[in-house]
Specification:
365 residues; alpha+beta; 4-stranded antiparallel β-sheet; 3-stranded antiparallel β-sheet; 9 strands; 52% helix
Length: 365
């Protein structure tokens, strides 16, 4: 279960000012305990936030097999890129609030948390929170991270992807289809069932041996779904048998899964497939052959063009946000970070005009 929740917490923050130290400050003088790396409109990116982000990335690399020293060195190399990422992230969050996407994002966070609870056989959000705490994960931090990621995606979908999708003329769609016909062939699809054996709290050789035993039983005639009901560690979705996964187009399969079932005939069972979480045993329930005749479907063509152009359009949109924003990077970071953001130094004074200044300026003839 822990692997489902390995999400780096990005907490909302403020510049922290502590009570003055008796030995280091005069009475009434505040002691600044954090450093502002960048001001982004009315928000700030702080040193403490950067350190949390770096620590999370180091931990992730260590979990993937890197040594602590190697992981720390690798993350430190990319510190300036991470600062740029945090600035971009703050701009997207601010834009999402401006677009009044907050309620939509919160609803999606709640939906996903409920889905995670159901997938793990947990009957309430309170019990899910407790399960996360037991593996030393902070439920509030995880929700904060989900809000940020979902908000960023919502802004891009609302402001970039949807506008791209509806922008193409019929003539443009037809020309794209004619020049990319091989992309519109109907691919083979496959229906899959699964037995999943998790590694949590178990010895890997024991889990592998159990997986091999189940493969032998399934190939020997044992009912696959009966075996799944008895042994799988992945709870079934509501209304489904514990073994059923679904039907997928072969090009959409995860590469390791596609390779594992490539030569498996309908009714056959794959060899145990090792993943980070455990072992998967896959049964091919059926295969549906693809077609060599391209088929024009307007929505499919729009989706294909949008996927092709979305990355560049998103980068351009983010650059526009930066160009329109007030972004002031601390001197000790400016020369390394500003070029990553393509921020052009303003010709005028760098002091941000107050609302009063703007009003007075606008009132002049």
């Amino acid at each position: 279960m822990k692997s489902k929740f390995i999400i780096a917490p990005l907490m909302l923050f403020a510049v922290l000012v502590a009570s003055p130290s008796r030995s280091q400050a005069q009475e009434g003088e505040p002691v600044i305990v954090d450093e502002v790396i960048a001001q982004v409109n009315d928000g700030v990116v702080t040193l403490s936030q950067l350190k949390r982000e770096m620590r999370e990335r180091v931990d992730q690399l260590v979990q993937n097999g890197r040594t602590e020293a190697d992981a720390t060195s690798e993350v430190t190399k990319h510190k300036m890129e991470l600062i740029a990422t945090l600035i971009n992230e703050m701009l997207l969050i601010q834009k999402g609030k401006e677009l009044e996407l907050t309620d939509r994002v919160e609803a999606e966070v709640n939906k996903r948390m409920l889905e995670v609870a159901k997938e793990n056989g947990i009957t309430s959000i309170d019990k899910l929170d407790e399960a996360m705490r037991q593996v030393k994960l902070d439920p509030a931090g995880i929700r904060a991270t989900m809000r940020i990621e979902i908000m960023k995606q919502a802004v891009f979908e609302n402001e970039v992807d949807s506008k791209l999708f509806y922008s193409y003329s019929q003539d443009e769609l037809k020309k794209y289809f004619d020049s990319h016909q091989s992309s519109f062939l109907k691919p083979e699809s496959i229906e899959i069932s699964e037995i999943f054996l998790g590694l949590a709290g178990k010895q890997e050789p024991d889990v592998k041996a159990q997986a091999q035993k189940l493969v032998a039983q399934a190939r020997g005639g044992a009912d696959f779904c009966t075996l799944a009901a008895a042994y799988t560690d992945r709870p079934a979705a509501a209304g489904q048998k514990p073994c059923k996964v679904g039907r997928f187009q072969v090009p959409d399969l995860r590469p390791d899964i596609a390779a594992a079932v490539k030569s498996v005939n309908p009714g056959g069972v794959s060899e145990p497939l090792k993943t980070d979480e455990g072992y998967q045993i896959l049964k091919v329930d059926s295969r549906t052959a693809g077609s060599n005749t391209p088929t024009f479907n307007e929505n499919n063509v729009r989706e294909m063009i949008t996927r092709e152009r979305s990355q560049k359009a998103r980068e351009d949109y983010l650059q526009d946000l930066r160009n329109d924003a007030y972004v002031k990077i601390a001197d000790s970071y400016h020369d390394a970070v500003a070029p990553l953001l393509k921020i052009v130094p303003p010709a005028a004074a760098t002091k941000r005009p107050s609302k009063k200044d703007k009003k007075e300026k606008g009132s002049k003839p």
